[in-house]
Amino acid sequence: MSFTASVLRVMIASPSDIPDARDAVEAAINDWNNANAKNKQIVLLPWRWETSSVPLLGGHPQSLINAQGVDESDIVFALFGSRLGSPTPDAVSGTVEEIQRAVDAGKPVHLYFSTAALPNDVDTRQLDGLREFRTEISQRGLLGEFATTAQLGHEVWKAVEFDISSLGLAGAAPAVITPSGVDIRVQPQQEREVSGVDKKGAPRYRTKRWLEVTNDGDQDAEQVSFESITAAGMLRVIAPSQPTTLHKKTTRRLPIALSAGVDGAKLRVTWVEDEETREKIFDVY
């Protein structure tokens, strides 16, 4: 059935070395649409130059991408892996030019850097340029990181919800009905913090990670327990040693530790509701 909605175009910008991350952002946007578009009366339209741009002569390719992509978009997600990208007439790379153009136009720009292992054939000049750019851009706002595409998908949802509220569109949605019973959701979170200084006095950083487990329902979850599951590597969840209660409309923070090479990490949440044991498994990394 048709419905009236506000349409926001979301540009996905990045160099060519992280196609999986670009796919993950588009998939997260599509998943958000499937879950929220009708109720919130908002549709997100992903824009990628390789699939959405119209072939056209009459200018430098980057200027055409700027006109068709950046200028017509409402939100920009910019991603970097191990490359800064190819230079343009006006910037050190096309992606950097797109970021600057969007910022100058007052559009929300969400910038994420991959923390995954570097490829064996990494271009050291590109990597040095990327690190220099990151140092410079870090003085102009908050930067995000992602270790896996699953984590990046969670970050996209969080940013989209923030933008909808900031753009004044949250009120377009009808009144939210509180889910009946227990309604569990899990959101991975992380932040960088200073862990000390090196011999030259420069700060050292470490990444602090945790899972936020929320009960959005109108009923307490009793005898709640948590179990980590991984396809490879290790995910350690620092959870209560005994089953606990997750009260309605509350969130519990669970610190976590990840080993190198962790993949397919999930969290199994088990609880008792209406005297029945229930469980749900969430992708987290």
Show the helix and strand layout.
Layout: E1 6-13, H1 19-40, E2 42-47, H2 49-52, H3 61-70, E3 75-80, H4 94-104, E4 109-114, H5 124-137, E5 144-146, H6 149-166, E6 184-197, E7 203-215, E8 221-229, E9 235-237, E10 244-246, E11 250-258, E12 266-273, E13 276-283
Parallel strand pairs: 1-2, 1-3, 3-4, 4-5
Antiparallel strand pairs: 6-7, 7-11, 8-10, 8-12, 9-11, 12-13
Keywords:
Immunoglobulin-like, 6 helices, 285 residues, alpha/beta, single chain, 5-stranded parallel beta sheet, 13 strands, Rossmann fold, 4-stranded antiparallel beta sheet
Quick take:
By secondary structure, the chain is an alpha/beta fold. The protein has helices at 19-40, 49-52, 61-70, 94-104, 124-137, 149-166; strands spanning 6-13, 42-47, 75-80, 109-114, 144-146, 184-197, 203-215, 221-229, 235-237, 244-246, 250-258, 266-273, 276-283. The radius of gyration is 21 Å and the shape is globular.
